[in-house]
Amino acid sequence: MKKMVLALAVVMAASPALAISRYNSQSMSCQSARAAIHNEGAVILRYPSKRVQGMTLYDRYIRNSRYCEANEYAEWTTIPTKDNPRCRVLNCQNIDNLDGMFIVPDYSL
Question: How far is CA 62 from CA 12, 38, 78, in A?
Fold first, then answer.
């Protein structure tokens, strides 16, 4: 019984570390979106689709490749923000997208 209580306490103590912040990118400036990503390491940003009315798009944006899986790397992409329709941020891309390049880019926000 003591082992079960101890295991439960360890799991509960680790739960907050699994949380990831979620933001609406169009309610933030580009600078504040990039600052949130840099300060937290990884965040989820959501925004409305330009092609499908009423659809919300979202993805996980990261500070650098250390926040990606082993078979992924950080690559530049853009998101719409309150003040910039093409704010540059990083998200994880599959390493297969490198099309035979030998060097994996090491971008950082």
Answer: 25, 7, 12
Residue-wise pLDDT tens digits, 6-61: 555 555 554 455 689 999 999 999 999 999 999 999 999 999 998 999 999 999 99
Per-residue confidence (pLDDT) for residue 15, from 0 to 100: 47
User: By the 8 A CB rule, do 28 and 81 touch?
Assistant: yes
- Kindly provide the residue ranges of all beta strands, DSSP E only, lying in 1-109, ordered along the sequence: 22-24, 42-48, 56-62, 72-79, 87-94
Pairing label, strands 22-24, 42-48: parallel
Half-sphere exposure of 47 (CA within 13 A, CB side): 22
CB of 45 closer than 8 Å to CB of 35: no
How many Cα atoms are found within 13 Å in the side-chain-facing hemisphere of 76?
8
Chain Cα centroid distance, residue 5: 34
Its pTM stands at 0.78
Q: Which two tokens stand for residue 8?
A: 């439960």
**pLDDT at residue 41, as a whole number:** 96
